[in-house]
Design brief:
Blueprint (H helix, E strand, L loop, with lengths): L1 H15 L10 H7 L5 E5 L6 H8 L6 E4 L3 H4 L4 H12 L4 E5 L7 H10 L3 E6 L7 H6 L4 E5 L5 H7 L12 H17 L3 H5 L4 H18 L7 H12 L5 E2 L1 H8 L4 H13 L3 E5 L5 H6 L2 E5 L2 H7 L7 H15 L8 E5 L5 E8 L2 E8 L6 H18 L3 E6 L4 E5 L2 E7 H5 L2
Parallel strand pairs: 1-4, 1-5, 2-3, 3-4, 11-12, 12-14
Antiparallel strand pairs: 6-8, 7-8, 9-10, 10-11, 13-14
Helix pairs in contact: 1-5, 9-16, 11-16, 13-14
């Protein structure tokens, strides 16, 4: 049974290698690591393209491919038998690609032993807990994690074969095509299969979310009240980019305690459904007790299940900016925060570099009216006075201008230009 399963997986791998591959934003980083002695760890949401990415970049002609999302392999208790059968199928090689490895108990001990035996290993996983407990405990100093999220807008344009040089002046027709693509991407998100097969988010992602919640949260953590986790996820999707406190969530959703909400939120974050963003303060205690905001890892998740957000373009745009900041490598609550000024004016995102605040970013769909422009400008100038940021940016749908105020410049920039820079 093991050999038959490995052969079936090998056939799927060979089929995959015949498909068109869009280089991902992590491709260059992976190529630098291929022949290092480090264990390569690719983390990210399910269906974000991790297997495709790993198969194409990690020695495609040499690497043994084993997918532990297969029930036939999960029934096997002797992992050495799996490796032995895989090597019989592929021939003797030192390259192992272990997909969705978090599904097997004590996977880190297996990986550690194989690594000590001289194997060059790449593992993928869809639970960010791999980054913390297991990796830190057993693979300290011998692994390098890479996070792969769904397509970025640049990757989406590449798939659509939009080859226009965006830095040059575009024709009216090309500009309209670009903005249409951006609207589509902002609403439907970047999950590769959804884009390739031109599926609607509610058709493709609604059952995906339900399955993920059951498999990666409810079943994994043996939750006795699954309706609580479903209600929490639904509430959060409908309140993207809004402040929350754990106590308020517990009261609103009828969950017994705020500590339970904290635990549930951690499960949802580990499963790569959402990211929690804290409010910036130079005082650590203040950061911990301030309200948080939540963002989904992909806009398609919002469109698929949100009740009212379909018309809230501003929130969709803000969530898109957040996910693209993640793809640029910014780490939430370390280099990326939101902010409230002393007069309670909110800054959507602040980017921290070392001990300095590098950039303040406001997201505003339509900044054409003088009233909106003044509001965004006032908030940024007040935050600039408090934080001494080096750069002030307002991301708009399609407006470009610069405002100077007493030596401080605010750059209004079209979202499409920022996304493709």
């Amino acid at each position: 049974m093991i050999k038959e399963t490995i052969l079936e997986q090998q056939a799927r791998k060979n089929t995959l290698l015949k498909e068109t591959y869009i280089p991902r934003y992590q491709t260059a980083q992976m190529e630098k690591l291929l022949d290092t002695n480090l264990i390569k760890v690719v983390l990210g949401p399910r269906r974000a393209g991790k297997s495709f990415f790993a198969t194409y970049t990690f020695k495609p002609s040499k690497a043994v491919y084993i997918n532990f999302d297969d029930e036939n392999l999960l029934k096997v208790e002797n992992y050495d038998e799996i490796i032995k059968n895989a090597l019989e199928v592929y021939g003797q090689t030192k390259y192992l690609l272990l997909d969705e490895v978090q599904n097997i108990p004590k996977w880190e001990l297996l990986v550690n032993r194989l690594h000590q035996n001289g194997y060059n290993i790449l593992v993928t996983g869809s639970n960010s807990k791999l980054l913390s407990k297991e990796l830190a405990t057993h693979l300290t100093g011998r692994h390098l994690p890479l996070e792969l999220l769904p397509f970025s807008f640049k990757e989406f344009l590449q798939y659509k074969k939009f080859t226009e040089n965006i830095k040059k002046i575009m024709t009216v027709e090309k500009k309209a095509e670009l903005l249409n693509y951006l609207d589509c991407f902002m609403r439907n998100g970047g999950f590769p299969e959804l884009i390739i097969h031109e599926l609607k988010p509610e058709t493709y992602l609604t059952p995906f979310i339900e399955s993920l919640l059951f498999k990666d949260v409810i079943k994994r953590y043996k939750l006795r009240k699954p309706n609580h986790i479903y209600n929490l996820e639904t509430y959060l999707i409908n309140n993207v980019a809004k402040e929350f406190t754990y106590e308020r969530l517990a009261n609103n959703l009828g969950i017994p305690s705020w500590a339970t909400v904290v635990k549930y939120m951690a499960y949802l974050e580990e499963a790569y459904l959402l990211v929690i963003l804290g409010r910036y303060s130079n005082k650590v205690a203040q950061r911990l007790k301030s309200p948080k905001k939540v963002y989904m890892v992909d806009n398609g998740l919002i469109t698929a299940t949100a009740v009212q957000l379909s018309k809230d373009t501003g929130k969709l745009m803000e969530n898109l900016v957040f996910t693209e900041l993640l793809k640029k490598g910014l780490r939430p609550n370390i280099e990326l925060f939101y902010y409230k000024t002393r007069n309670d004016r909110e800054i959507d995102f602040i980017i921290k570099q070392g001990t300095k605040i590098h950039e303040l970013i406001q997201v505003c769909y339509d900044a054409s009216s003088s009233e909106v422009s003044k509001r965004e400008t006032k908030a940024l100038l007040e935050a600039q006075e408090e934080l001494h940021a080096e750069k002030l940016t307002v991301l708009t749908w399609d407006e470009k201008k610069q405002i100077d105020n007493n030596g401080v410049s605010i750059n209004f920039m079209p979202l499409w230009e920022w996304l493709t820079a």
